[in-house]
Amino acid sequence: MDTGSDVVWFPCTSRYLCKHCSFSSSSSSPRIQPYIPKESSSSKIIGCKNPKCSWIHQSNINCDQDCSVNSCLNQTCPPYMILYGSGTTVGIALSETLHLHGLSKPNFLVGCSVLSSHQPAGIAGFGRGLSSLPSQLGLGKFSYCLLSRRFDDDTKKSSSLVLDIEQLDSGKKTNALVYTPFVKNPKVEDKSSFSVYYYLGLRRITIGGHHVKMPYKYLSPGEDGNGGVIIDSATTFTFIAREAFEPLSDEFIRQITDYKRIKEFEDVTGLGPCFNVSDAKTVSFPELRLYFKGGADVALPVENYFAFVGGGVACLTMVTGPERVDGPGMILGSFQMQNFYVEYDLRNERLGFKQEKCK
Questions:
Q1: Prediction pTM value
Q2: pLDDT per residue as tens digits for the range 50-76
């Protein structure tokens, strides 16, 4: 489930190829039967003239102007190639009936992937685009509560996902949520890749009550569309542009004086700063608090921003990248959302959240 993209896709061939993937592409899991379009009476290939063809390509498609009327009508939507931060997937657009928790949705646009690299078994795009699951179902809101990563290998426990539409009554009460409005990116129309993101107005960050001074251009989208803060369920560790990450990292280093810094672990894990806490009877790190537009603020539990990586060493679970960043300046990842109920209120253009035990 990916709030940073908008296409719903999955493998739909018995000869599906997936390189460097976390599951076997040659033999499907016995729990998941492969989907074969020709065995479904309701599956249809999307035509080039179908508006949904431009949904999956995020642009207007130029169909062959020299074809006859009949061949134009039969011309299929060109194959898609979707680029993610970690890999790609390639396939064709289909129309199919979606059956979900008592709901039946005909003519649902899905991606029929035949080749992928560095991908899971499929992705449900929950972003802002027309092809996303929330958009196609007309959701007024959706929400999730992500389990602690301690339960990653426990098949008996799973996180919750609530879809709020007229046909579905979740019964979930959302009292005591704090809300922050979604922020608009000025370049959404020009750069379609930005249009799927949920931007948040992060005003400041404090560590141990001390304000971390970050360049504002990374916290708010600029005139060129770059910068700003998005929330993305498919990003694991929060990503922060280097120029904004370094003041945050330096502040942790300045305040954490009880534990020795272990740079060797930083080189191995790609995380940092890292500290040796093996000799400590109790482990204590400075509070990390995020302040959002609209008066919402949240203090993250320490297990949401520091993790043990072995040998009694704990590392900051936020990462950075190259000097120059095209795109968001900060991506709030799922590791930081553990044991938070998070609500995407699409009707009112706002994000709500509260801390709770998701299991």
A1: 0.90
A2: 999 999 987 777 776 545 555 556 789
Return d(Cα 185, Cα 164) in angstroms, integer: 26
- What tens digit of pLDDT does each residue of 78-136 get? 999 999 888 899 999 999 999 988 889 999 999 999 999 998 889 999 999 999 999 99
d(CA 144, CA 161) in angstroms, rounded, equals 4
